[in-house]
């Protein structure tokens, strides 16, 4: 039943509504229009490739004519979007509608003589495999990777800025050997850069071998042509890898590999979001107020860590979609089924949630300030973390013959486990140790704030 207060048509997804500004660049590639523009490109470039080889007694097209043809996808816009929507309403087949569009434009250009080379010997999946490879590759390289790079760059910047900011570590949530905030942020940059390199080196594969991957129709039309080589050179000329052995579809394994790696990045980013959220909650970071912004609808003092919470949620949504894509796309019944068709239409949604998370993380990392005094105060209340250093020095002294203490670990456990020990108590304890004077002086000079090992150098 229609609601009496039905709205005008509204976007169902928040990516196309509330969050549109943050994800809009992906629409140039991973939208329906972006896919159709790529399909037109694939059809046009195949036609040019066939005539360049003078197949079926054709001649290579003049340069100006090629440019006119390439204008069909370079100038693809609202007129073509509307034309395809109207045609698909009749054909009930999206790729066939694209073929008709190209034929229509060929006729307008006076190129009816080569119209039958449009979609020549192609199954829809030849066009789709190339089109998806092109659109995903361009979306990743032109939109998603730059957004990831912006987050990595911010982490590197903060890592260097806070390289010397000693902080209490909290392994298992408990006070532990100090580190520096810069080193901890550098860990995330280091992890992300490693997986980013894998993504940057991804394969983007396409097939172009006909209805069941056998070039059967091609050979029927010209048995003397080297169709696998023609197809390979065509696909590789578009900047893609060529998959020579397939069924009707390209097997999607490259997509599974890519989406699993993007999901891996999302997991690291999720870890970053929850850690920064926790650091904010214990006062290590303060949030920089944004003029006019409301932190809480009822508590005026609050600045909620919304950037990191939003990123966390969107990374979870992205991970779920990417996981579903990987699980579905890896399988196709016999030589073809259509489960991948509707699945692949959600590639943009999966990347959209990831891109939104990246945008929030980049913004969030720029809206926090390190409270160094809180870090130092926390360290000063946890002198017991030096127990590790003391028992390790004692062990070294025993080996060197300068101590006869029998169980250094047990000695320090009795002193520190389950209760707080201050600077004075530790100093008195160290003074009474049977160890060499040089080792004793090193321990007496040590504080929780200076017990950070190589953390600063690692961050730098």
What do these coordinates show?
The protein has 460 residues and is mostly helical. The chain folds into three domains: 23-120, Fumarase C, Chain B, domain 1, CATH 1.10.275; 125-371, Fumarase C, Chain A, domain 2 (Up-down Bundle), CATH 1.20.200.10; 382-459, Orthogonal Bundle (Ribonucleotide Reductase Protein R1, domain 1). Helices cover 60% and strands 4% of the residues. The protein contains 20 helices and six strands. The chain has helices spanning 20-23, 27-30, 32-52, 63-74, 78-91, 94-108, 124-161, 181-200, 216-221, 227-237, 253-281, 306-329, 339-344, 347-365, 372-380, 387-399, 408-416, 423-431, 437-445, 455-459; strands at residues 166-169, 176-180, 205-206, 241-242, 285-287, 368-370. The strands form three sheets. The chain has a two-stranded antiparallel ribbon with strand order 1-2. Helix 3 (32-52) crosses helix 6, helix 8 (181-200) runs antiparallel to helix 11 (253-281) and helix 12 runs antiparallel to helix 14. The protein starts with 19 loop residues before the first helix and ends with a helix. The model has no long low-confidence stretch (mean pLDDT 92).
């Amino acid at each position: 039943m229609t609601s009496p207060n039905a709205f005008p048509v509204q976007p169902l997804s928040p990516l196309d509504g509330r969050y549109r500004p943050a994800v809009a660049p992906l629409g140039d590639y991973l939208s329906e229009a972006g896919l159709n523009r790529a399909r037109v490109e694939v059809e046009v470039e195949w036609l040019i490739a066939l005539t360049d080889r003078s197949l079926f007694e054709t001649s290579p097209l003049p340069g100006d004519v090629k440019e006119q043809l390439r204008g069909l996808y370079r100038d693809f816009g609202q007129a073509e979007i509307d034309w395809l929507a109207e045609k698909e309403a009749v054909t009930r087949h999206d790729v066939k509608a694209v073929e008709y569009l190209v034929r229509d434009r060929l006729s307008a250009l006076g190129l009816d003589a080569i119209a039958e080379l449009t979609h020549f010997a192609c199954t829809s999946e030849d066009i789709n495999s190339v089109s998806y490879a092109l659109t995903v590759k361009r979306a990743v390289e032109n939109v998603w990777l730059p957004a990831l790079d912006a987050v990595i760059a911010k982490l590197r910047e903060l890592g260097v800025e806070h390289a010397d900011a000693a902080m209490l570590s909290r392994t298992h949530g408990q006070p532990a050997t100090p580190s520096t905030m810069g080193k901890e942020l550098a860990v995330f940059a280091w992890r992300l850069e490693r997986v980013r390199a894998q993504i940057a080196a991804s394969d983007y594969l396409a097939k172009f071998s006909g209805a069941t991957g056998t070039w059967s129709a091609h050979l029927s039309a010209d048995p003397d042509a080297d169709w696998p080589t023609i197809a390979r050179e065509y696909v590789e000329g578009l900047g893609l890898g060529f998959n020579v052995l397939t069924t009707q579809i390209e097997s999607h394994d490259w997509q599974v590999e890519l989406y699993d790696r993007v999901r891996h990045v999302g997991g690291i980013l999720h870890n970053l979001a929850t850690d920064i959220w926790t650091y904010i909650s214990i006062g290590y970071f303060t949030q920089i107020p944004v003029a006019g912004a409301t932190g809480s609808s009822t508590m005026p003092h609050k600045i909620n860590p919304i950037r990191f919470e939003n990123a966390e949620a969107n990374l979870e949504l992205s991970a779920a979609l990417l996981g579903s894509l990987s699980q579905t796309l890896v399988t196709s019944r016999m030589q073809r089924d259509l489960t991948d068709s509707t699945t692949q239409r959600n590639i943009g949604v999966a990347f959209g949630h990831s891109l939104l998370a990246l945008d929030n993380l980049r913004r969030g990392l720029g809206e926090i300030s390190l409270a160094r005094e809180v870090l130092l105060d926390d360290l000063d209340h946890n002198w017991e973390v030096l127990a590790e250093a003391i028992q390790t020095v004692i062990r070294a002294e025993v080996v060197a013959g300068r101590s006869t203490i029998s169980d250094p670990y047990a000695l320090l456990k009795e002193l520190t486990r389950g209760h707080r020990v201050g600077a004075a108590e530790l100093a008195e304890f160290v003074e009474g140790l049977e160890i060499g004077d040089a080792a004793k002086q090193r321990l007496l000079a040590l504080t929780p704030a200076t017990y950070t090992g190589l953390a600063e150098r690692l961050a730098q």
